[in-house]
Write a structure and sequence with these properties.
One of its GO terms (molecular function) is DNA-binding transcription factor activity. With 137 residues, this protein is an all-alpha fold. The chain contains six helices and no strands. The longest helix has 34 residues, at 77-110.
Length: 137
Amino acid sequence: MNIKEASTRTGVPAATIRYYEKEGLIPSIDRSAAGVREIDDRIIRRINFAKLMRSAGMSIEALQRYIHLFDAQENNLTEQRALLAEQVAIMEEKRDDLQAAIDHLHWKLDHFDDHMVTTEAELRSLEQQHSEGKLSD
């Protein structure tokens, strides 16, 4: 299939597929005599893997390293496992930070009438006093 068909099939823009190829996140894509990329299921699987890892927050550098380890001839399963474990820890930390922010917003919503309205009125009053020059820094 060509790059447009691969883009439709994977949901990855053609420009991103070209970028993945340039950065070594997917193998070099064979081309027809006319220079048109000929993408097979092997490349589709790699595109989908790169898309998933990038969506999960894996850096380009970490993904390049993992792909290099995967493609290497020597047995380096320990390094692959360690890299994936490191990425999971990074992603879990991001998830926990996001969950803390979500929990805080839920608390604000749950206490909007009995806390937030009063607090925001106090802040507005302070801002107004400051803009009128009644408060100094």
